[in-house]
Amino acid sequence: MTLNCKTPEDVLKAIADDDIKHVDLRFTDPRGKLHHLTQWHTTIDEDCFEDGFMFDGSS
């Protein structure tokens, strides 16, 4: 599912309105390799958009 959200509030509203349970975050490492991280919907809040997500990528 692709959402056309422009603000953190839009994302949080879409999660609630569409009963979304998992959010797939995609990003590239410094070398340009694509990675993704799937988060449970309850871990997504407004602070995530300011502070980011901490995770252990060592494995």
Characterization of this structure:
With 59 residues, the chain is of the alpha+beta class. The chain has one domain (8-51). It is built from two helices and two strands. It has helices spanning 8-17, 46-51, and strands at residues 22-28, 34-40. It has a two-stranded antiparallel ribbon. Strand 1 and strand 2 form a beta hairpin. The termini are far apart. The relative contact order is 0.20. The model has no long low-confidence stretch (mean pLDDT 90).
**Which residues sit in consecutive blocks of at least 5 with pLDDT less than 50?**
none
Q: Give the count of structural domains.
A: 1
* Alpha plus pi helix count: 2
Content-based structural category: alpha+beta
Average per-residue pLDDT, rounded, comes to: 90
Name the overall outline: globular
- Tell me which oligomeric state these chains represent: single chain
Order of strands in the sheet with the most strands?
A: 1-2
Radius of gyration, in angstroms, nearest whole number: 12 Å
Measured by DSSP, the beta-strand proportion falls in 15-25%
> What is the end-to-end distance?
28 Å
Work out the helicity level. Answer: 25-40%
Number-wise, the strands total 2
Order of helices and strands: HEEH
| Biggest beta sheet summary | 2 strands, antiparallel
